[in-house]
Amino acid sequence: MRIGIGLPNHVAGVSGAVIGSWARRAEERGFESLTTIDRLLYPSLDSVISLSVAAGATSTLGLVTNVLLAPLYSTPVLAKQLGSLAACAGSRLTLGIGVGSRADDYDAVGVNFTRRGRILDEQLIAMRRDWSADAGYCPESVSIPLLFGGRSEATIRRATTVGDGWVAGALRDFDTQSAFAERIRAGWQAAGRAGTPQIHASVNFALGDGDVPQQGRDHLARYYGFRPEYAKLNVDDMIHSADDARAAVRAYRDLGFDRLLFHPAVASIDQVDLLADAVL
């Protein structure tokens, strides 16, 4: 199982200067990939731009959106940005895509929140068309793996028919996640797809002494504050010790997941070393 670490782009007030140094440290310490969390109305850094900075600071790490809220964006512009990033990064990009659950993000860009699933379906067709050099958007054709977040029937349909797999949420609900992963694998086979789907999971973490774990919990409580019950689940589930981090790796490896992404809940760069010491 591949192990990636998140960039702290989603931590409120994060300095943009940390992204490049964080990415370089992650590559030096042996992580397989870097990932971002996407959100609009929050004092955070844009996912695509953050991954672009990380791409320029590294040479081998995979680049993963986990997840990108694609319906918030203009489809032709997003296709060009992602196609450009994939071309510049040497095909290191994997797109985790979802629709999100914050209506205010959609209101801010004038997109109908209730149509976000249908918009995503339309975007998938258009972006894959636009990633061909023949479409005139990109200088070269690129192939970008698409993984879908969520637990709806639409998620299963997208992941097994037009996508490349599924991304589980950050809560360690192992039984539910394992059962859904099996539905993805079964749907993949039923669709007559070759090979196997990619199955990713993610967790939140804040390692260290003193008040670092509490800082991480405070971040999660604020970030998910629009849904208080869900925020509490994330706070309670946050990884705060090396033993807990290693246990998560073992659990997802035993469940047959292909990649585990650790999202930092604090933006201090020593989190890269602390996590590497624990799980690599």
Automatic annotation (TrEMBL):
<dbReference type="GO" id="GO:0008726">
    <property type="term" value="F:alkanesulfonate monooxygenase activity"/>
</dbReference>
<dbReference type="GO" id="GO:0046306">
    <property type="term" value="P:alkanesulfonate catabolic process"/>
</dbReference>
<dbReference type="InterPro" id="IPR050172">
    <property type="entry name" value="SsuD_RutA_monooxygenase"/>
</dbReference>
<dbReference type="InterPro" id="IPR036661">
    <property type="entry name" value="Luciferase-like_sf"/>
</dbReference>
<keyword id="KW-0285">Flavoprotein</keyword>
<keyword id="KW-0288">FMN</keyword>
<keyword id="KW-0560">Oxidoreductase</keyword>
<protein>
    <submittedName>
        <fullName>Monooxygenase</fullName>
    </submittedName>
</protein>
<feature type="domain" description="Luciferase-like">
    <location>
        <begin position="1"/>
        <end position="228"/>
    </location>
</feature>
<dbReference type="Pfam" id="PF00296">
    <property type="entry name" value="Bac_luciferase"/>
</dbReference>
<dbReference type="InterPro" id="IPR011251">
    <property type="entry name" value="Luciferase-like_dom"/>
</dbReference>
<keyword id="KW-0503">Monooxygenase</keyword>
